Amino acid sequence: MTSDIRSTTQPPVMTDPNVPDWVNLSLPETWADRLCFRSVAGLLKFARLVLGKPQKVQVDSSDPLFADIPKYALQEFHNLPNGNYSSQISRGYITGFDVSMLGQIQAARRAMAQRVAHCNAVLDIGTGGGKLAAQVRAAGPRDVWGIDVSPYLLKHAAADHPGVSYLQAPAEAMPFASGRFDGIVACFLFHELPPKYAAQALAECHRVLRPGGQLLIAEPSENQLQRVRLRSLLRRSGWRHLYFKTLARFVHEPFVMAWHKTDKPALFARSGFTLLEHTDEIPVNFYALRKD
Ligand SMILES: C[S@@+](CC[C@H](N)C(=O)[O-])C[C@H]1O[C@@H](n2cnc3c(N)ncnc32)[C@H](O)[C@@H]1O
């Protein structure tokens, strides 16, 4: 009798969602898949699109694959034709991101992976092409998950980096049980979220982490968008600083300024985290947090 009452009053135990077979899943072609890079005319068209005004992404919203993607994510981030919503352009983005960051982002991912090497269950939020999740898996943790909103990036991630469980889900509503993970990593995700959703994503991180679990966040350096005189900039930190500053000014990042203006230590504290470490170097601003 007593056990019956208990079973009806306790919250249901949430099991992990099924992981789609991304590699064999066929995704709908979008207009950006039809861009041709084998002719001068095609390359000029691509250049016009990249240099033009970013547009709303076109996807079939009646398709369940796109129905739950937050509206703010359906934009041409980084001036990419149709954003992260085509097989072709998202494939190019996975390589292009690392190249444009001059190898610095891969170094940041490696350092983050080492910090969660002792964990068993680790989640990579905004996993993109799965490079950070793969680094984490290689560092030791056996139960590694990656979530992202773009099915095209998830399909590439699953093909390139097996051994990680990939799910399509927004960071602000994660389909996992509370306390499911020992560690969470996020590389260049939070500056892509409007402030309200960044706060919700942090609340979700707090929920799905076990007490004492670590949240590691790498984001673009705040120095990149500060106004500094060119000569003092070059004297202080050289051409690399100038390069990343220029890149930051020209790439479409609709919420990056809001992220830079956010009082992060206050936000982290409100979300139930203790700030263990913070470094801000060009081009990566890094935070290590612990769930209280
Ligand atoms: C700059 S990319 C970084 C990708 C990856 N972390 C890396 O290191 O290469 C940001 C990623 O966040 C994803 N993203 C954007 N909004 C998201 C959200 N609300 N929830 C989960 N992922 C999101 C994008 O689709 C994209 O893959």
TrEMBL record:
Q: Methyltransferase type domain: from which residue to which, for each copy?
A: 123-217
Record keyword Transferase present:
yes
State the superkingdom: Bacteria
Q: Which SUPFAM superfamilies does this entry report, sorted A to Z?
A: S-adenosyl-L-methionine-dependent methyltransferases
Coiled-coil intervals: none
UniProt-recorded Gene Ontology molecular function terms = methyltransferase activity
Give the UniProt keywords, A-Z. Methyltransferase, S-adenosyl-L-methionine, Transferase
Q: Name one GO biological process term.
A: methylation
Short name of one Pfam family: Methyltransf_11
InterPro entries found in the cross-reference section: Methyltransf_11, Methyltransf_Superfamily, SAM-dependent_MTases_sf, UbiE/COQ5_MeTrFase_CS
* Keyword flag Methyltransferase: yes
- What is the protein's name according to its record? Methyltransferase domain-containing protein
| Gene source species | Gilvimarinus japonicus
Q: What is the lineage of its organism?
A: Bacteria, Pseudomonadati, Pseudomonadota, Gammaproteobacteria, Cellvibrionales
